[in-house]
Design a protein that fits this description.
mainly alpha, two-stranded antiparallel ribbon, 4% strand, globular
């Protein structure tokens, strides 16, 4: 993986979490962490068990919500009121 900076374990955990989320696009990961889609795939392959990686790839392949240009919607998303606020990739305390 050719990244501009070394990723911390916390960064890797957050990228993996974002990659699993249905509505978080690869563009959002690129903007926040500087990783292109293929770099995210490579990270997932390295960091996950083979069976988990295969399950994720099957889930993500062809999913419109993971690609900004293929989405049917442009803004708005569901957010639970119990969800913590995320600011600059850091979870704020309540």
């Amino acid at each position: 993986m050719n990244t501009k900076k070394e990723l911390t374990d916390l960064d890797k955990d957050r990228i993996i979490e974002m990659a699993w989320e249905d509505r978080t696009t690869f563009d959002a990961i690129l903007m926040q962490f500087g990783l292109k889609e293929q770099e995210v795939i490579d990270l997932m392959r390295i960091e996950m068990k083979p069976s988990s990686f295969r399950m994720w790839r099957e889930r993500v392949q062809g999913r419109k919500t993971k690609h900004e240009k293929l989405r049917d919607f442009r803004e708005g998303r569901f957010k639970c009121t119990m969800q913590r606020q995320i600011n600059n990739n850091k979870i704020s305390k309540r």
